[in-house]
Amino acid sequence: MQNVSLSLTGRQHSTLKSHLLPADGKEAVAIALCSRRSGARHRLLVRKIHLIPYDACTERAADHVSWPTDVLVPLLEEANRLSYSVVKLHGHWGYTRFSETDDFADRTLFPSVDGWIDADVPHASVVMLDDGRMFGRVVTPKGDFVPLERITVVGDEIKVHFPEDFGGAAKSSSLPEFVLRHAQAFGEGTISMMRRLSVAVIGCSGTGSPVIEQLARLGVGRLVLVDPDVVEAKNLNRILHSTAKDAASARPKVEVLAHAIAEMGLGTQVEALSQNLISPACVRAVADCDIVFGCVDSVEGRYVLNKLAVYYLLPYFDLGVRIEADSRGGVDQICGSVHYVQPDGASLLSRHLLTMEGVRAEGTRRRNPDAYKKLVEEKYISGAAMPVGRPAVISVNMLLASLGVNELLARIHGYRDEPNNEYAVQTVSLTQGALYAEPEGQACRILSKFAGRGDVVPLLDEVELSEGRAS
């Protein structure tokens, strides 16, 4: 099987590193049960980790480990019941390839794993190095080895490990000239990674369009653009590349931006979806990406994006702008925020940026405006809908877009003096002339338990995302 990758959270990575690379310098073993995102890029999503106790191993040394495989039986039973993939992990001190001992062990173990699991799913073997990097391979039922296309760790930092980083494949070609000055600032490794990333941007208007512009000019390999709306005259003050002709012809926003990226000629591929995010096609397209940017005002949209990122172990950057006008032609407040959301960390719910009551109310308003109006009148829903005609200014949108894209670079490249976990939320107030940062909080009690749940029926456990339903 080709194009299989593995994703895990930063917390899972820390748990594995502590166990697999202990102070005694001897090898250790762990087993991960993984759900999946099945598609052109088949992604294994770590759902559960079982650490094989040191004292359960029959032999442990600096270059090998032996352990009784009967400890796998309850895990294999669970994996078979849930159609999970099985991943074996062990540690190496500085040895950046699988050993002959590893080859023999994998060819001995995985036929039994395949025999236990009825579902036709890939299983893998992974090595963690003492510096935290990881490489791995799928072990086919015939005993062939196919390198994992990438291993992604989503934590305070975003780490993506490719097989060529360990000599497992040919190095990619040199960077194109247009990104060389980016590489001078953020390093060739960071920019080379950007060339191999797929980024989804949901909301392609005032904040989304400058995010898209920056990502394309930073050399991101692929962009998935999601927005159901068309260009209107009121949008021309802030959507990059939009024209009065686009507004007159009601051209889809994603089409305008996709055309602009193609005209750049910088090699970024684009998938443009002029649809509401809350549709199976859009959820699947976003779930196939490596990184998600949310540039939407909708409470419901933000909740779905947060949930999607949790289910599919994706890093999620949520951008929001607020301009409060007074009644005299001035402003009371100009501010905005960038939230970085980890799959098993704090969520937009636990940070009180949105509430489930608001999510349900907005969903009702979208599906059935008349029913929503009646519920408000009868006071079953408290509060009104999102404000209509809120002020929007391109200079403020672009400031927040830049803050969001630089936050991505900080998570990939790590250029800050202080730890990234001190910057889970950044709020900028132009009226106060201040930038506030908030640290990562406790894991969300509502969403974090679903981290790595992957493909389920219906998608995201949402009835509205059942296949065959109208969008």
List keywords for this structure.
alpha/beta, 8-stranded mixed sheet, Cytidine Deaminase, domain 2, globular, 23% strand, Rossmann fold, 2 domains, 9-stranded mixed sheet, 471 residues
Number of domains: 2
- CATH class category name of the largest domain: Alpha Beta
CATH fold-level topology of the largest domain: Rossmann fold
Relative strand content: 15-25%
Task: Look at the structure and give the mean pLDDT.
Answer: 91
Proportion of helical residues = 25-40%
Distance between the termini: 32 Å
The CATH architecture of the largest domain can be named as 3-Layer(aba) Sandwich
Main structural class: alpha/beta
Give a brief description.
By secondary structure, the protein is α/β, with parallel strands linked by helices. The chain has 13 helices and 19 strands.
Tell me about this structure.
The structure is a single chain. The protein is 30% helix and 23% strand. The protein is of the alpha/beta class and 471 residues long. The strands form 3 sheets. It has a 9-stranded mixed β-sheet with strand order 9-8-7-6-2-3-1-10-11, sandwiched between helices. Strands 14-13-12-15-16-17-18-19 form an 8-stranded mixed β-sheet, with helices on both faces.
